[in-house]
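My current task is to audit a protein record that another person submitted. Thanks in advance; the entry in question is below:
***
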Amino acid sequence: MVQGLFVDMLQNPAPTLDLPYLYRATTHRCLSYVRDEKNRARLLERETGTLIGAPRTRCDDRVLDMDLLVKLTKTLDDQTLEILFYRYFDDMTQEEIAEQLSTSRKTIGKKLDDITTAVRGLTREGEAS
């Protein structure tokens, strides 16, 4: 807060730069910040469902439940798991994931195929028992 105040004061000099002015300005900034944070939290709490939307939890024709996710963490490597979460929980496109991970879209497509194969294998395994 103090650093921001000094930056603003350098850009727009105040008429007086005495200690009481600095104290009042710092206090005012801190109180405004706290009020804004409380307001933001209240608004986000009220509108969370609208802002977030329904998460995608389906991998093709299978629902990704906690049990399946635990099994996938044991089966897939870290990068593939990261792609799984980007695609099915953050609802990112293959292009967005490729940009995020600095890789090609084709590689992301292959990893998503691996995920689908793993999900099918694990769900068949669960149906057999």
Q: What stands out?
A: Residues 58-128 form a domain with the Arc Repressor Mutant, subunit A fold (CATH 1.10.10.10). The two ends are 60 Å apart (CA to CA).
